[in-house]
Write a structure and sequence with these properties.
The complex is a heterodimer of chains A (95) and B (575). With 95 residues, chain A is of the alpha+beta class. In chain A, 38% of the residues lie in helices and 31% in strands. Chain A contains two helices and five strands. A five-stranded antiparallel beta sheet of chain A has the order 2-1-5-4-3, sandwiched between helices. Chain B is α+β, with helices and mostly antiparallel strands. Chain B is built from six helices and 28 strands. Chain B is extended, with a radius of gyration of 40 Å. The chains are: A alpha+beta (95), B alpha+beta (575). Chain A: Pfam families: Robl_LC7.
């Protein structure tokens, strides 16, 4: 229930277009987008987060990736990685 | 110390068969190490030396092979599902997901991630951290960088036998593609093995043309339809016109019939502005300008014979080499001829005699290029023999501005679509010149040697930054010009307008004066004719003409002098 609440709160924020939760294997657990986009995002972002994390740790083994933001022309993809799960939010900043 | 080992063989034993047998090793010499010699040597500094089992060469060049890469999309499929879950089956996936959602660690991590995420989302909504803080309304002052151009790509004719790039046309939508027409214009130099194809190149990929067009005869010119980015029309060496749709492939959708086409290579073909967007007209050295509707290429819709005497006589027609059509003046068009004349015509004239409005006596050789200035349609640029000339429509006697005689023949020219005072020319020695007439009129602002062989064609992309020029060996080079030459300067239009006006006025005055003189001549000759009773010889030899001119001159000066003397006398008498 708490999870639902959290996700609802996030969804209600300004400009949020979609939320995806994927596990460490890249399987989408929960999503607000359609299946095809979800699968695409899951596959691509999973690889990107793995690469980003390994980059950060290669430079400094004590360091770890806490957040990843990809700003594009049309929107911003924010990824919060955890040990087992990733929370992905696509936001279109309204300003 | 000498170490000698002697092999002996009796003379009588020569020629005998060799009988080999095993033998234990025999120590012949044993030289122990002598440490006292070490003092004569010093240790050499260690050095890394790499060795390669390859031949030693005095001069050698290596170039990697061309890497052909193709981009293709990736198909995403779901993966990562554990072995017992078949991801096609909805039930199993749902069950799996529900199981995960019940997991403790899942809940904890999501809660934690959720709060982090919310923070960032709120940040985004609060402040746009990527906004432009310092809005620059105008570009900062021109850095006076010297004008330059750099080659971006070279598109080579993929066939063995290279043909000249005789025509170039940019894709109308953004110019990502370039269509190039290849043919061999030298008389009887086409061999049977020469390919007939022309190509459409994607400017990002110079290795392979995107599409090849296969006409029945090599194309001399090729044009994209500015309204429809998929259709192209091409004029070929045998006089036929062919129409392609790039979606439909390499074969022409339709070709005009041989009987009704031109009888000479079609040198230029242009699309017209019409409601249907399917009209074109073409010009060729057989003296005809033909109008076509590409939906029905079996017969031209209209025909005009370029006869300067306005009789429509094809025997005396001038061969047309270049054509210009400005969409702001849809009924008028201009033709540049092989004989050096520029003919201005009106399409909507009622009678054929009125079709040819006027002619401009331009060059000593064929007028290879003709284009109106996109900003000042009354002025147009022609190129032929060794000069480039700028004309004003009203002045028919001579051009208002011209370049000095260049070292080699000019083959093509065009105005820059963004800067009214800039135009480009290509020459037979492979040089691309950029002229900025507001900056310097005697010499080109920038002169670049593009290649060793002659450059035959030139085309600028609509954004004014990319230039494509085609050479005799089938190479189309793509250059990017520096921003200085491709951005509109302040007051450029007004300055250029003032310049054109000034030059036009000058020419007008000169023309008026010339006419006056001629009128005077004629009236005097008429007078003298009526006096002599028509005994004046019309075909006078040049010497006689010169003598007469001299006489007239002296008479004139004498009368002037006498008039002056009389004036002076009057003045002095008054005093």
């Amino acid at each position: 229930m708490l999870v639902e609440e959290t996700l609802k709160r996030i969804q209600s924020q300004n400009g949020v277009q979609g939320i995806i939760i994927i596990n460490s294997e890249g399987i989408p657990i929960k999503t607000t987008l359609d299946n095809a986009s979800t699968v695409q995002y899951a596959g691509l972002i999973h690889q990107l987060v793995m690469k980003a994390r390994s980059t950060v740790r290669d430079i400094d083994p004590q360091n770890d990736l806490t957040f990843l933001r990809i700003r594009s022309k049309k929107n911003e993809i924010m990824i919060a990685p955890d040990k087992d799960y990733f929370l992905i939010v696509i936001q279109n900043p309204s300003d | 110390m000498e170490i000698v080992h002697v092999y002996t063989k009796l003379h009588s034993e020569f020629g005998r068969q060799c009988l080999f047998s095993d033998r234990p090793a025999e120590l012949l010499v044993d030289v122990p190490a002598d440490q006292s010699l070490a003092s004569q040597f010093t240790q050499r500094t260690r050095r890394d030396q790499s060795l390669q089992a390859s031949r030693d060469m005095s001069e050698h060049r290596v170039n990697t092979k061309r890497f052909e890469s193709e981009s293709c999309g990736l198909n995403h499929e779901e993966g990562g599902w554990p072995k017992d879950v078949n991801h096609q089956v909805m039930e199993q996936t749902i069950r799996f997901r529900k199981k995960v959602e019940k997991d403790e660690s899942y809940i904890n991590s999501i809660l934690q991630l959720g709060s982090v995420m919310e923070h960032c989302i709120r940040q985004n909504n609060a402040v746009d951290i990527y906004q432009d803080c310092f809005e620059d309304g105008e570009m900062p002052e021109e850095h006076q960088e010297p004008p330059s151009a750099k080659t971006i790509n070279v598109f080579r004719d993929p066939n063995e036998l290279k043909r000249t790039v005789t025509g170039l046309s940019w894709h109308p939508d953004g110019g990502e593609k370039l269509a190039a027409a290849y043919s061999c214009l030298e008389f009887q130099k086409t061999s049977r093995d020469m390919s007939l194809d022309s190509y459409i190149w994607d400017i990002e990929n110079p290795n392979r043309p995107e599409l090849s067009l296969k006409p029945a005869s090599p194309l001399v010119c090729l044009e994209y339809n500015p309204k429809d980015c998929h259709s192209l029309v091409g004029g070929s060496y045998n006089g036929q016109i062919a129409y392609w749709d790039s979606r439909r492939g390499s074969q022409p959708v339709e070709t005009s019939s041989v009987e009704h086409s031109h009888r000479d290579p079609v040198y230029k073909i242009i699309w017209l502005q019409s409601k249907t967007g399917t009209d074109t007209f073409s010009a060729s050295t057989d003296g005809q300008v033909l109008w076509w509707d590409v939906r029905k290429l079996s017969e031209p819709t209209e025909r005009l014979v370029l006869d300067p005497s306005r009789e429509g006589n094809p025997e005396r027609a001038l061969g047309a080499i270049s054509l210009d059509f400005e969409s702001t003046m849809p009924t008028k068009f201009m033709v540049g001829t092989e004989q050096g004349l520029v003919v201005s015509c009106n399409r909507k004239a009622k009678t054929p005699t009125e079709k040819v409005v006027c002619t401009y006596d331009g060059h000593q050789g064929p007028v290879y290029a003709l284009q109106r200035n996109p900003f000042f349609p009354k002025n147009f640029l022609t190129v032929g023999d060794w000069t480039a000339r700028i004309w004003s429509e009203d002045i028919k006697e001579s051009s208002i501005m011209w370049t000095k005689y260049q070292m080699s023949y000019l083959m093509d020219a065009c105005w820059s679509p963004v800067r009214p005072s800039v135009f480009f020319t290509v020459k037979m020695d492979g040089v691309l010149d950029m002229w900025d007439i507001l900056f310097k009129q005697n010499d080109p602002t920038l002169s670049l040697k593009v290649c060793d062989e002659a450059l035959y064609s030139l085309r600028l992309q609509d954004n004014g930054r990319l230039v494509a020029c085609g050479s005799q060996q089938g190479e189309a080079t793509l250059l990017e010009i520096s921003s200085g030459l491709s951005t509109l300067q302040k007051n450029e239009k007004s300055l250029l307008a003032a310049m054109f006006e000034r030059e036009t006025k000058r020419e007008k005055i000169l023309e008026a004066r010339q006419r006056e003189i001629r009128l005077k001549e004629r009236s005097r000759s008429e007078q003298s004719r009526s006096e002599d009773g028509g005994r004046e010889d019309i075909d006078q030899s040049p010497l006689q003409l010169m003598a007469r001119a001299e006489e007239d001159f002296y008479v004139l000066t004498e009368t002037e002098k006498k008039g002056k003397e009389r004036e002076d006398q009057d003045l002095s008498s008054e005093l």
